Amino acid sequence: MTASSGERVARPSLVSLLAEAGVASEAELRRAVAEAHEQGLRLGELVVRRGWADEDAMARLLADQWGLPFLGRESL
Fold first, then answer.
1. In sequence order, what E strands does 1-76 have?
2. 3-state class of 20 per DSSP?
3. Which residue has the higher pLDDT, 9 or 46?
4. Coil, helix or strand at residue 55
5. Chain centroid to CA 40: how far?
6. How far apart are CA 4 and CA 22, in angstroms?
7. How far is residue 62's CA from residue 56's CA, in Å, rounded to a whole number?
8. Angle at alpha carbon of residue 26, lines to 22 and 28, rounded to 5°
9. How far is C-alpha 3 from the geometric centre of its chain's CA atoms?
10. Neighbours of 47 (CB within 10 A)
11. Is 38 helix (H, G, I), strand (E, B) or coil?
């Protein structure tokens, strides 16, 4: 997902990645986005607080979103 010559590459939205992973429906995630915004949280923080995904699963999805390798805690 890298671009050359300063060209930007569109990343998939976190909502779509979470929905594809079966964490929650897209409608539930859209409501969670609004709720997270109201509470001053990031979507991933709210997802973890609700128990929809653990921190490692969120880190893995965020790494995928940004095209980065994921290093689990055990590999550090």
1. none
2. helix
3. 46
4. helix
5. 16
6. 33
7. 10
8. 95
9. 21
10. 24
11. helix
- What pLDDT, in 10s, does the model give residues 49-66? 999 999 999 999 999 999
Which tokens go with 30?
A: 């859209």
DSSP 73: G
Q: Phi and psi (nearest 5°) for 42?
A: -85, 155
DSSP label of 40:
T
Rg (CA), the chain: 14
For 19, the token pair is 């929905």
| pTM attached to this predicted model | 0.81
pLDDT band at 3 (very low <50, low <70, confident <90, very high): low
